[in-house]
Amino acid sequence: MDAKLVKMNKEIYGKACIYWRAGRYNKNPCKFMHAETPSPHTSYPGINAKSKICGKKHHSSSKIISKSKKTLVQKSEDREGTNVVVSKKSSRTICKYWTNNKCLYGEQCINLHSWFQSDELSTITELHQHKKAITGVTLLVGTNKLYSGSTDGTVRIWDCHTGQSLKVINFGKEVNSLISEGLWIFVGLKNAIKAFNTKTNLEYTLDGPKGRILHMIVGNNILFAGVEDGVITAWRESSETKSPFELAGSLIGHTKSVVCLRVSLTVGCNMLYSGSMDQSIKGIISLFGMHDANGKPILFSSCTGNLVSMYELPSFSERGRLFAKKDITSFELVADGGLFLTRDGTGLLRVWKWNELPKVASN
After folding, report:
1. Boundary of a domain, candidates 277, 300, 317
2. Cβ of 277: how many Cβ atoms within 10 Å?
């Protein structure tokens, strides 16, 4: 009976408190350790400290992998004492405690304390005034105005130079997508699209879709809209005075919501690509492409798990990763300065910039 009690106490008191590790400890006293490894002088209830040596010579050595699977502890024991060597492997995973300001390890943490993993990127600023997920962001060509739409029912207009919110337009219902083309701003709502001419300040309603407008794109002077019911609806320019747009038709083929549209930019090849929740493109939330500071083409692939992977084309070698608290749902290229924007499910807009790598001098 005593032997069982000693074994149980040693198992309990030899473990680190999971609440302490998460920064949520509120119990005193606590029967678990508030340290990652026990001190060499730690004594356990019911265990005689002398019994751990027993006058015997130890020549054993062992390797222990911690639960994090990132830290290798090599431990050797002999009569003179114990030598512990800890080596850390670089991690490609963001620390979930750090994202909530609860990590206790600071610089000693084995996971990333950064929103990106790359030496070539840096953040410029963050715009965080939307109350819910951002569903669209676009920079109006020829101006310093940035537009963002959110499921909080608003579209915000930002000053790109100061980062200040200039105007808030309240629609009273979820804004599910947002794009611009020329002087036009298109706002995707439920069962309709609102079209705004920024020069004349005129507003038009494009009816026809059934459900939320989840994604829009313009190609060959045609506005395509991916709809919640799996249909892609298209409008083209019209000479009618009542509305500058007319319904061109619908593309039917997907069985679930259309969440991503792309028009081929290849000369002589007019193709529309669509991704859907019917797993036509499984696991991918959004795709985006641009050139880095050295002119190399980079593909951004946003996947489930709050992760964006960056690949250099055409080799597909990985160039880095971006992280967020919630999935990054879309990207927007800023025309000047190599800047780009990301938006995520928390309502956060983040502005990024490519860093120029130092050039190697040639002999």
Report:
1. 277
2. 17
